[in-house]
Specification:
Blueprint lengths: L8 E4 L3 E5 L9 E4 L4 E3 L11 E5 L4 E5 L3 H20 L20 H8 L9 E5 L2 E8 H10 L6 H13 L4 E3 L1 H10 L11 E3 L6 E3 L4 H6 L6 E11 L6 E10 L3 E5 L9 E4 L4 E5 L14 E5 L5 E5 L3 H17 L2
Antiparallel strand pairs: 1-2, 2-3, 4-5, 5-6, 7-8, 8-10, 8-11, 9-10, 12-13, 12-18, 13-14, 14-15, 16-17, 17-18
Helix pairs in contact: 3-4
Organism: Crocodylus porosus (Saltwater crocodile)
Keywords: Acetylation, Phosphoprotein, Repeat
InterPro entries: DEP_dom, PH-like_dom_sf, PH_domain, Pleckstrin, WH-like_DNA-bd_sf, WH_DNA-bd_sf
């Protein structure tokens, strides 16, 4: 009625979503049925709010905002699976929680992730080929399970499958390619696949995918070989129409590039900003912008070729973090 945003404790059930004013409350403030509902993600009805998705029922539209991109994607993935189960007459059970896969409380996923990334003793990142595509800086599902067994993190491959699924669902591993992505979306018995042709990668690696690549393509792909130092969603002003859209940005160093993607998904970027020799600074307004667009938390990147990019962060703290990160990469990267 009032179009206001309020923090809620939200619970996903088999057939609906309950929301509570507080986590400790015994009765929900309301319930949204999932039968016959539809999801829209990303939802751009609120241009200055990031990580929003829309759940539409026959009677009403409901808008939710997550704290960060991975959290939003996890909610959307599980809600979609619940809707699919209702339509298919199946029982929905979320597999991504620690309780559901019965992980021991002593397992520290963060520490395990750091061990897996160890250059000497961790999972080896490789260049793998499948379906006329080349996947760089990734590894097979079987390699992950093999490593977990050899490091004595698990007793058998079945346990390894549960542990790897938890790493995937918590964002420590990302799927690469149709086989692993289909499983991660809930269309397989387990989110993670112990298969030699199911590929995965670390979120902060230099992963990129290329098709039938010639020598010329390899030169063009050099910009993706830098280490990811920061990523997240920002509002970006278009150069022609001057409209604003949410984009996922990935900042890489050596070479210094800022790639931006459609937050709805896709392995190929919509564009790239070469940061070597650029100037980045906070701005209070934008020339030729409409009044409602010239809001706070804006910053500008001017490339060495004098191309201007205007971006907007969600908070002043986030803007400062992005400016510092870009400045550092611009000074040190190629």
């Amino acid at each position: 009625m009032f179009n206001t945003w309020k923090p809620m404790w939200v619970v996903l059930l088999e057939d609906g979503i309950e929301f509570y004013k507080k986590k400790i409350d015994n009765s929900p403030k309301g319930m949204i049925p999932l039968k016959g509902s539809s999801l829209t993600c990303p939802c751009q009805d609120f241009g200055k709010r990031m990580f929003v998705f829309k759940l539409a029922t026959a009677k009403q539209e409901h808008f939710f905002q997550a704290a960060y991109l991975e959290e939003r994607d996890a909610w959307v993935r599980d809600i979609k699976k619940a809707i699919q189960c209702i339509e298919g007459g199946q029982k929905f059970a979320r597999k991504s929680t620690r309780r559901s896969i019965k992980l021991p409380e002593t397992i520290n996923l963060s520490a395990l992730y750091l061990s897996m990334k160890d250059p000497e003793k961790g999972v080896k990142e490789l260049k793998l080929e499948k379906d006329k595509k080349v996947f760089n800086h990734c590894f097979a599902g079987t390699s992950v399970i093999d490593w977990l067994v050899s490091s004595n993190s698990i007793r058998n491959r079945k346990e390894g499958l549960m542990l790897a699924s938890s790493l995937l669902n918590e964002g420590y591993l990302h799927p690469a390619g149709d086989t692993s992505k289909t499983a991660a979306e809930g269309l397989s018995d387990t989110p993670f696949l112990d298969l030699p042709d199911a590929y995965y990668y670390f979120p902060d690696s230099g992963f990129f995918c290329e098709g039938n690549s010639s020598d010329e393509d390899v030169v063009l792909k050099e910009e993706f070989r830098g280490i990811v130092v920061k990523q997240g969603c920002l509002l970006k002003q278009g150069h022609r129409r001057k409209n604003w859209k949410v984009r996922k940005f990935v900042l890489r160093e050596d070479p210094a590039y800022l790639h931006y993607y459609d937050p709805a998904g896709g392995e190929d970027p919509l564009g790239a900003i070469h940061l070597r020799g650029c100037v980045v600074s906070a701005v209070e307004d934008i020339p030729d912008a409409k009044k409602h667009e010239a809001d706070s938390n804006l910053f500008e990147i001017i490339t060495a070729n004098d191309v201007h990019y205007f971006l907007q962060a969600a908070t002043s703290t986030e803007r400062t973090e992005w400016i510092k990160a870009v400045q550092l990469v611009a000074r040190t990267g190629k």
